[in-house]
Amino acid sequence: MSAVAVEPSDCSARIDAAALKALGQSGPLGQMQIWGDPAAFGPNLRRVAVEVFGEGEYDVDVTLGQDCRVQSVTPRRATPGAA
Question: What is the pTM of this model?
């Protein structure tokens, strides 16, 4: 039996959900919107750009394990919030 690699597009829903959950637990309040697909930075690292209304944009790095399992999630502010 051979292993089949999971393509990033097949993982998008799981990656997006992990990013939203991490931001919801880390403090920024407001409506959240993800634009586009996660960007790949290596075989196991994806970055999601999340816009938080009234707060600005956040980048959320999601590290994946085998079969698209989320291993870690690291959110950080990408742009300053609205004045």
Answer: 0.79
